Amino acid sequence: MNPATTGDTMAAKPDLESLSLEELQILIADAQKVLAAKVDAERLTLLQKLSALDAISKPAHPLPKKTRAPRKKQFRHPDGREFAKTSDNIPAAFRELGVSDWAEMEKYRIPE
Asked: From CA 91, how far away is CA 88, in angstroms rounded?
């Protein structure tokens, strides 16, 4: 923005061409210090705003986590392990016994 048209006041821009190398290095160092201070101040302001937003956005009581009940075991392997039908795939332990479809699994069903 042009300060002459907006009414903003700004320090006069130094004639950089007329400054010595040492004066330019001092100017750069001073400008970096001022910039760091302004960035830190802005960061602090934003962190305070975020903290205030966090305080009002959290529910008074956290909602309980929804949990699922474990699946009921439907089939018992001869070695005593129990299985639930979780997909259309026959469990490997039953395939090792030669079971190839769910109709054959009925003889391993746990009575209710």
From this structure: 9
